[in-house]
Design a protein that fits this description.
The protein has about 120 residues and is mainly beta. Helix content is about 0%, strand content about 50%.
Length: about 120
């Protein structure tokens, strides 16, 4: 068993072409052979670009207000909302223009992310 206090996990800067601006990432569980669990923290208006994953992805909103979107719909989400994207579904997520936004992301180890827009 491992208990993690999210407030005690250091934030690492994450600069990648997938994001419209830098975000921070906190590795909640880094030693699992089965799942990857991180917190991703977005500043106001920051999002990731349209992408898909080779494995299912679950997001759990932990702070602020954000958007989650597929090619068919865009929704506002807040603390406590849980979002599931099945493998292969094209989507994006990030902060609203007026709020920072954080979510826990859970996926299987070895999953690949494909960025679908520049």
């Amino acid at each position: 068993m491992k208990i993690v206090k999210m407030t005690e996990v250091p934030r690492q800067s994450a600069v990648a072409p997938l994001f419209t601006a830098p975000v921070t990432r906190q590795a909640i569980v880094s030693d699992s052979k089965e799942v990857v669990i991180n917190i991703v923290n977005f500043g106001k208006g920051v999002k990731n670009k349209l992408h898909s994953h080779s494995v299912d992805q679950v997001l759990v909103v932990t702070a602020g207000k954000g958007y989650v979107a597929t090619e068919k719909e865009k929704r506002v989400v807040t603390v406590g909302d849980v979002i599931w994207f099945p493998a292969g579904e094209k989507h994006w997520h990030g902060a609203t223009e007026d709020s920072d936004f954080s979510h826990i992301t859970v996926a299987r180890v070895g999953g690949k992310t494909t960025q679908l827009e520049e």
